[in-house]
Amino acid sequence: MISLTSPVETRAHRWPAGAKLAALCLASTGLFLTDSLTVHLAALAVVLALYAAPGRVFLAAGMHHLRVVLPFVLLLMVWHLVTGELRAGVLIILRMVVLVALANLVTMTTRLSDMTDLVHRLTAPLRRLGLPAHLLETAIPLVIRFIPVLVARAETLAEAWRARSRRRPGWRLIFPLMLHALDDADHVGEALRARGGPLGHKRPE
User: Fold this and answer.
1) Transmembrane residues, as ranges (predicted)?
2) Contact (Cβ atoms closer than 8 angstroms) between residue 88 and residue 171
3) Contact 192, 198 (CB under 8 A)
4) Domain parsing of the chain, residue ranges
5) Model confidence at 203: pLDDT above 60
6) What is the dihedral of CA 34, 106, 148, 42, to 10 degrees?
7) pLDDT for res 1
8) Crossing angle for the helix pair 37-52 and 86-108, nearest 10 degrees?
9) Cβ pair 99, 2 in contact under 8 A
């Protein structure tokens, strides 16, 4: 499995993970508090500038990751065109794209170990209450690492489909992709059990 962290070193890689997540929360709150298209367009321009600042390689990788929102953008646009609420649709799309792009930017500039350490600090109160916070610390890195794996699986299945048919794969890939995900989950579960499993391991304070 691979990480979503960009290999292109940026200044943001050295910023604390907590500060980046706090900035993401503030930006999300700010965008939900305003319905101004001008503000949302300005936010989109700022986000694009942040992606472009480290160079073409970083920008291309960021745009590649953001392809997953395109189906939702098209669906929302079609729905709001049908209902005659174009301005509301544009506002929702801009808000969604900016927030997903910012979250992706945080992921690309934050090492998984830094994110895990942050989760460890944030879950300290749960440990004091005797709750199994180490399960959460295990689950979050696994989810982050599984995302690129599932994307790669989907691309492989799509290529295999296009090699055998002229029709678009669409929803037909959902079931085999789900089977692959369950199979990978079984393998990861066996690997965890072979190493004692998260239930038998607690991170030292």
Assistant:
1) 39-59, 66-82, 88-106
2) no
3) yes
4) 15-110, 119-195
5) no
6) 40
7) 40
8) 30
9) no
Encoding tokens for residue 171? 């929803």
Residue 143: pLDDT above 50?
yes
d(C-alpha 83, C-alpha 89), whole Å: 10
Q: Are 46 and 97 in contact (CB under 8 A)?
A: no
Q: What Cα–Cα distance (Å) separates residue 150 from each residue in 134, 178, 179, 190? A: 24, 9, 11, 19
Give the residue among 114, 100, 94, 98 at the shortest CA–CA distance from 12.
Answer: 114
27 token code pair: 């930006």
pLDDT band at 2 (very low <50, low <70, confident <90, very high): very low
For the chain, counts of helices (H) and of strands (E): 9, 0
**pTM as predicted:** 0.70
